[in-house]
Design brief:
There is one protein chain. By secondary structure, this protein is an alpha/beta fold. The chain folds into 2 domains: 8-227, Spore Coat Polysaccharide Biosynthesis Protein SpsA, Chain A (Alpha-Beta Complex); 237-306, no CATH class. The chain has 10 helices and 12 strands. It has helices spanning 24-32, 52-62, 76-87, 106-116, 164-167, 202-212, 237-255, 258-274, 282-295, 297-306; strands at residues 11-17, 40-45, 66-70, 92-95, 100-102, 120-129, 135-137, 140-142, 148-150, 171-172, 181-183, 216-227. Strands 1, 2, 3, 4, 5, 6, 7, 10, 11 and 12 form a 10-stranded mixed sheet that branches. A two-stranded antiparallel ribbon has the order 8-9. α7 packs parallel to α9 and α7 (237-255) packs across α10 (297-306). The protein starts with 10 loop residues before the first strand and ends with a helix. Keywords: Glycosyltransferase, Transferase.
Length: 308
C-alpha cells in the first residue's frame, strides 16, 4: 500500500457543475489562487441551461490549468465525477462542489494527511458554511440503516476548535463530497461510481468502497473548504425527501446486510400507506420509488456481488 509521496502538482481538482453560473466563478477562482497550485482543474458541466458552459470555456481560454469537459447532458453528480476521474491526469483527486470555496490549506494539509498515513484512502476536510464560522461537516458517518450525517453540522466552529488536535487523523465512514481528497494508487477499483444514484450518497459509496479495499477515510481539520450548502438541492421538500430516500435504499441494496434491506423496504411501504391521510399521493410516490429500485435491481445486486 506504499507509494511515492504525493505533491500538490499530483492533484487533479475536480468540479462538477449544473446551472451554477452564480457560484461557479468563485469556486474556480478559489482553486486557481491556491499556492502551490494543483496540477490541473477539471471542470465538468452537466448540460447546464444557464451560462455555465460559456463561463467554463472562457476560464479555460484564460488559464491553461483549467480543463473543460462539456458533457452536453446531465450525468448526475456520480456520472460527472466518473467522467472527470477518467479524464484527470493526477495521482490524487480533490473534489470541490460548484458552490464550494477552496481555503488556502485545503490541498497542502490534505496531502500531509495522505503522506503520513499509508492506509489513508481519502481525506475528509473540515467543511464550513459560507460564513466561515459554522460547521457543515467534520467527517461523515453512517448509521445501521444507511442514514448519513455530518458531524457537528450547524454548530459554531469556535465551540469545537479545542477538539481538532485530538480528532485529526481519526477515522470516519466517508468524506463529504465537497472537499474530499482521494488517492488513486491502490484505489483504482473504486471507479466508476454507480451512476444510477439520483443525487446523494455518491460520496458515501466511495467511502464504503475505500474501506472494503483495506484503506480508510480520515478527518483532517487543518484542511478546509467552505460550502454554500444547498445551492443545487430541489426546491420542493418532498422531491428532496424522495430523492434522498431512493439514494439511501440503493446504497442499502448494494452494501448492507439483507436484513436491513428488507426491514427498510417494509418500513417505507408502511410509511407510504400511513401517510395517505395527510398527503393523498404518498402511496403513489412510494410505489414509484419501488418501481425504480426494481427496475435497476439486477444492476444493484451485481454491484453487491462485486463488493461482497
Amino acid at each position: 500500500m506504499k507509494s511515492e509521496p504525493f505533491s500538490v502538482s499530483d492533484i487533479s481538482v475536480i468540479i462538477v457543475n449544473y446551472n451554477g453560473e452564480h457560484v461557479l466563478p468563485d469556486a474556480i477562482a478559489s482553486v486557481l489562487r491556491l499556492d502551490p497550485p494543483p496540477g490541473e482543474l477539471v471542470v465538468v458541466d452537466n448540460g447546464s441551461t444557464d451560462q455555465s458552459p460559456l463561463l467554463i470555456t472562457r476560464w479555460a481560454e484564460k488559464d491553461s490549468r483549467v480543463r473543460p469537459i462539456l458533457a452536453g447532458e446531465n450525468l448526475g453528480v456520480a456520472g460527472g465525477r466518473n467522467l472527470a476521474a477518467a479524464y484527470a491526469e493526477g495521482r490524487v483527486l480533490a473534489f470541490l462542489d460548484s458552490d464550494g470555496i477552496a481555503e488556502a490549506t485545503w490541498l497542502t494539509e490534505s496531502l500531509k494527511a495522505l503522506n503520513q498515513d499509508p492506509l489513508a484512502g481519502a481525506v475528509a476536510p473540515l467543511v464550513l458554511l459560507d460564513d466561515g464560522e459554522t460547521i457543515n461537516g467534520a467527517g461523515s458517518f453512517l448509521d445501521v440503516d444507511g442514514h448519513g450525517y455530518d458531524r457537528f453540522f450547524g454548530e459554531p466552529e469556535a465551540e469545537h476548535a479545542a477538539k481538532w488536535a485530538s480528532l485529526a487523523g481519526t477515522v470516519c465512514d466517508y468524506p463529504m463530497g465537497c472537499g474530499m481528497v482521494v488517492r488513486l494508487p491502490g484505489l483504482e477499483r473504486v471507479w466508476p461510481l454507480d451512476e444510477t444514484l439520483p443525487k446523494w450518497h455518491d460520496d458515501t459509496e466511495l467511502g464504503l468502497r475505500i474501506r472494503r479495499l483495506g484503506y480508510r477515510t480520515i478527518f483532517w481539520p487543518a484542511a478546509r473548504v467552505r460550502h454554500r450548502w444547498g445551492h443545487a438541492n430541489p426546491a420542493d421538500a418532498y422531491a428532496k425527501h424522495w430523492m434522498a430516500e431512493e439514494a439511501r435504499l440503493r446504497l442499502l441494496v448494494k452494501y448492507f446486510p439483507w436484513s436491513r434491506v428488507v426491514t427498510n423496504l417494509l418500513h417505507l411501504g408502511v410509511h407510504g400507506i400511513s401517510g395517505l391521510r395527510r398527503r393523498p399521493q404518498m402511496w403513489q410516490e412510494t410505489q414509484e420509488l419501488f418501481r425504480r429500485i426494481w427496475r435497476d435491481w439486477n444492476d444493484l445486486t451485481l454491484i453487491r456481488r462485486e463488493w461482497a
